Structures are given as structure tokens and as C-alpha cells.
Amino acid sequence: MKRRKLLLICLLIASALGSKMQAQELLSNVYGRDFQLLNGKWGAIVDLYDQGRKMQVYKNRKPQDNKQFYEYSFDGGLTLNVPSDFNSQMPELKFYEGTVWYGRHFDAPQANGKRLFLYFGAVSYRSRVYLNGEEITSHEGGFTPFQVEITDIVKEKDNFLTVEVNNTRTTDAIPAMSFDWWNYGGITRDVMLVSVPQTYIKDHFIQLDKTQSNLIRAKVSMSEAKPGMSVQLSIPELGIQQTLTTDANGTAQATIKVKKLQRWSPDAPKLYDVTITSNNDRITEKIGFRNLYVKGEDIYLNDQPIFLRSVSFHEEIPQRRGRAFSEADATMLLSEAKDLGANMIRLAHYPQNEYTVRLAEKMGFLLWEEIPIWQGIDFKNDATREKAGRMIKEMVMRDKNRCSVAFWGIANETATSAPRNEFLKHMKQCCLDIDSTRLITAAFDLVRFNRESQNFEMNDSIISILDMVAINKYMGWYHDWPLTPDKAIWNVAPGKPLFISEFGGEALYGKHGDAEVKSSWSEDYQAQLYLDNLEMFKHIPNLRGTSPWILFDFRSPFRFHPYQGGEWNRKGLVSDQGQRKKAWYIMRDYYNEKKAGK
Ligand code: GCB
After folding, report:
1. CA 312 to ligand 1 center in whole angstroms
2. What is the helix (H) or strand (E) element at residue 4, kind and residue range?
3. Is any ligand 1 atom within 6 A of the Cβ of residue 553?
4. Sign of the alpha-carbon dihedral angle for 195, 201, 202, 203
5. What one-character DSSP code corresponds to residue 541?
6. Are 409 and 443 in contact (CB under 8 A)?
7. pLDDT band at 23 (very low <50, low <70, confident <90, very high)
8. CA-to-CA distance for 225 and 327, rounded, in angstroms?
9. Tens-place pLDDT, residues 290-317
10. Residue 179 C-alpha to ligand 1 middle, in angstroms?
11. In angstroms, what is the span from residue 564 Cα to ligand 1's centroid?
12. CA distance linking residue 6 with residue 128, whole number of Å
């Protein structure tokens, strides 16, 4: 009997902890709400031996008498900028992987009668959040937002907020143990204190019908599951002012006919001011409207077949050797892509910050977004699958109103296996649960040259679940040419649009050398490689887009040749110092020709 009682108590404690730990459903469009930024200098403690939790660092205690002492203090110690990764802020932290504690005080004057949420744009990779000495939430995943409501525990004055951040790689994580970039740790994106009324607009999803150009579909969810509440949707420029009424779940839906809509496209990235108003809440957004679908081997944007002139970049400012996190950073990365003639960005290899996503939309880029399912993922591990599902949902929740987002990418370079297939099907389903309108894709490195048929081919049944098949293929770099590029015929995923999601080779800016010798690390070799690949692309009948790897040289402890300057991947079309290599111009000319319809 005693034992049963104990078990019951344990279960109760576990379930209480479990619910406390649950990341809460995300508020959509936080930047369109009332918020206060908790950015700036935070106190920091580097906790290599993981002693902080035992020492209750998060209590931020000070000696109260002449017997007490604490062997830690945020006051008078290290300070770190938030947002920003910690690795780039001190030479000693350059390759640090472990725990860092962040702490700061804040006031919450807006508390009166409002509900308050702490919203973290991203913390890399694991985090536990403590407010006034109590743990209030935890999160895993370095590139997606999470939030926690603090209405009942926050004080108007002098709160102490602590975040325990850990970026140690583990086999069950996403990404897992090794990958080709440096995974900066820290509070890498904005921290916000968002205030909303008691009953607030929790979520909205407003977009043009997938195929019809005169139908806007709107869905608004209130925080309370109550029928009969009114919600106004207004898009003044389109003369839309519509009242929607919630159902028993607190969700209101409408299909609205529009006239004279200017659809969003990379050439004319028109966005409309949208306002949603409820009894006492109001949020504003800029939303674009476009149709996007696949028919046969073509991708149609606004009923016109489109060729995707894409490029990739990591969320990194190479000159600064740190994570990109601001609008200025986004401007730097995207302007270079614009000059290249790109109309799409494959955001590699994880959801990047909202500044980048929103600016890309404003500047006229389609987007491919993915979570870091990058080789080496433990597909057999249920916990990993559950984690990946949550991550991909956080990504879709955050960006589903961005009309620029054309693709949800569900994986990069995975080997064929039954558990992998189940995992990827689950990823697709997680996207569809929230958004059934985007095109689903994944990148594969499984195309091989078949000596018998003399064709490039791929055999992987998982492609049947995809709208577009994407191929990473490093001809001339990881793979030698089995025949001349003009004879390289592809027979891959016929009947579907095919996208070259990566190709390229390494070169040091300013280094000249033999265009035949890979280890010349020369711009000349890289330039010839690009010319050869562009020649091969002419023989891919269902090719509907290309994305060279990569726009900028990026840091990666995956490789360490001194020529590359240590931990650098030099496949950039642009060097870490912003200099354009020869291949940049080749790609720019190719994209100009494609733009001109050649
Ligand atoms: C790939 C990966 C990418 C790497 C690239 C390379 O296939 O998807 O993350 O950085 O190759 O440079 O090897």
C-alpha cells in the first residue's frame, strides 16, 4: 500500500514537471504585438563542469550574513551580448561547447491586467529558463522559437531571469554529432517580453488559395475556446473589412473574394497591410498573396512556370565569425544574393532568424526552409523523431504567413532505410498538420552514374512523397566526371520537378592555379567546375532550379586544411571578407540568362 502511494506521488510530481516543461504553443507574429526587448548585456557564467544547477546559480543569491558565501556571481563578472552567440564574443570561447549561464534583471511595468509571455527567438541548443529562482520552462533545438507564460509569477519590479544554455553535441540531437558548419551556442536571437490581453488572438493564417487568384483564405484562433466571438480582418488596400465569428474551438474562418489583387512575386514583392482585431486585441502584419503549385514537372508561381535561381547561405557573418541575428546582417546576406540574380534562397540548413525571412520576402526571394536533419540523425530513436517533429512544427508555426516560403525541406542527405522513411513521412505530416499548402521537398546525395545506361540515376522510393526532388551533386569535386559534361544525361525523378540543391567546389579568393587540379584550391579550378556543371544542367530534362553551394565561405570544424585557413569551408562564391570569386560572375551570368528566359 505504502509503495503504491509513493508511486502515485512520484507520478503526480513527474506529470507536474512534464507539463511545466512543455513548450507552449507559439504566439504567431510576435513582432506585430506589444513587446519589450530583453536584449542587451546579460551577466554570464561559463560552467564547463556543469556545477551551476547544483549550486542553484539561478537563485542569484548574495551572502546575507558573515557566514554565508556563494562561489558564483553574475555581478561583476563576464557579460555577453544578447542576441549573439557566445563563441564569437571571447577568444576563449571560440570552440566552446558546454554550459553558459545567462542572467539579468528586468522590470515588467506592463503587467497590469495583461498576460505576459517570455519569447525566445532561438537559444542554441538546449536551454532551461528560470524566473526569480524557479525553473519555468526548457527547450531543445537551436533555431526555432519558444515561449512561456509568466503572468502569474512575474513582478512589476526587479525580476531575475536566468537562462542555462548548453550547446554540447549529442547523438540524439538535431543536428547530431558532426556536420559541416560551426554550430554557435548562446542566446542567438531576440528575447522578448510580449504582452497580450486576457483573451488574445493566438494565431492567424491568411493566404491566397493554392490555385485560385481571387480567393483569400483566413483562419484566426483566439486563446479561449469559446464560440460566438467576433474578429475583424481588414486589408484596407483591397477594400476588405470582414467580421468573422469563432466556433466552439475559438477559431474563426472565412474565404474572401478579392478583386484587383496584385500578387506577390520575386519581381514585384507586393505586401499588404493586414490587421486583425478582436474585442480587445489587435495585431498587424504585412502579408503577400500568391499562388504556388506543381503540375507535372513544372513549378507554377502565379500560374507561370518558374525556374528557381537559388543560392544558400548559413546564418553567419563570415567577416565577424559569428551568427547573423539582426536586420543589418540580413541585409548584408540578402543583398549579395540579389546581386547574383537569385530569386530564391535555400536557408541552409536550419530555420534562420525572422529578420532574414521577413526581409527576404520584402526583397523578393522565394524561400526554402528546413530543420537541421543533416546526415547522421538517429532515425530509429523515437525521442529524436518526436523532437524533430516539434522543431519542424515550430518552424511552420512561425513562418506559415510568409508567402515567400515556397518549400518546407524535410531532410538533407539521408540514406535509404525503413526507419528513415518513417521518420521523413512523419516530418511531412507535421508540416501538413499546420499547413497543407506549401511544397514539400528534401535534398539527397544519392544520384549515381550508371555505367550500363550511361545515365545519372537515383533509386529511393521516398521521393514519391515529395512535390519537388532536390539533389546535392558535387560533380568535379567529390565526384570525378565519368564522361564529359556535355554527355552527362540525367534520368532522375522523371515526372517531378528536379532541383539541384547543392553543387560546387573549394577555392581561396585570389588564389590562381591549375584549372585541372583540385588541390590547387584555386579560383580557376572552381570557375571551370562551375562551367562544367552548368553545361551538365542542360541535360537534366526536368531541371527547374539550381542552388550553388554556397554564397559565402563559412566556418566549419569539419575540415582543417591550412590553405583553407583552418576551420573553413571555402566553397563560397564570395570569400569570408566579401570578395567575389570568379565563379560568382559565372553564376551571375547564368542567372541573368535564365532571367531573360534563355
Ligand atoms: C553537402 C552538405 C553541406 C556541406 C557540403 C560540402 O552535401 O549538404 O552541408 O557543407 O556538402 O561542402 O561538403
Report:
1. 11
2. helix 2-21
3. no
4. negative
5. T
6. yes
7. low
8. 36
9. 999 999 999 999 999 999 999 999 999 9
10. 8
11. 15
12. 28
Type of residue found at 163: V
Kindly report the pTM of this predicted structure. Answer: 0.95
| Cell numbers found for residue 445 | 546525395
Statement: residue 168 has pLDDT above 50:
yes
**Which residue's CA lies nearest to atom 7 of ligand 1?**
472
CATH of the domain spanning 19-197, picked from 3.40.190.10, 2.60.120.260, 3.40.50.10490, 1.10.3430.10:
2.60.120.260
Cα angle at 31 between 39 and 103, to 5 degrees? Answer: 20
469 beta partners:
442, 498
Cell numbers for 568: 573553413
Which ligand 1 atom sits nearest the alpha carbon of residue 569?
A: 12
Asked if residues 441 and 308 have their Cβ atoms less than 8 Å apart, the reply is no
Q: What are the pLDDT digits (tens) for 212-250?
A: 999 999 999 999 999 999 999 999 999 999 999 999 999
pLDDT in tens, 571-582: 999 999 999 999
- Find out whether the beta carbon of 547 lies less than 6 Å from any atom of ligand 1: no
CA-to-CA separations, 205 to 172, 219, 221, 251, 511, in angstroms, rounded: 33, 5, 9, 11, 50
**570 CA → ligand 1 middle, Å:** 11
Q: For residues 281 and 279, give the distance between their C-alpha atoms in angstroms, rounded to a whole number.
A: 6
In this structure, are residues 475 and 528 in contact, taking their beta carbons and an 8 Å threshold? no
Fold exhibited by the domain 210-290: Immunoglobulin-like (2.60.40)
Boundaries of every domain in the chain:
19-197, 210-290, 306-393+408-595
Three-state DSSP at 245 gives: strand
Smallest CA-to-CA distance from 71 within 85, 57, 50, 59 is with 57
Quote the Cα angle for 12-14-15, to 5°.
65
How is residue 348 written as a grid cell?
Answer: 541552409
**Number of neighbouring beta carbons within 10 Å of residue 305:** 13
User: C-alpha cell of 321?
Assistant: 565569425
Topology of the domain comprising 306-393+408-595: TIM Barrel (3.20.20)
Looking up cell 526507419 gives 419
Ligand 1 pocket test target in 472, 506, 568 with most atoms within 8 Å of CB: 472
Strand partners, 407: 368, 439
| DSSP conformation class of 580 | B
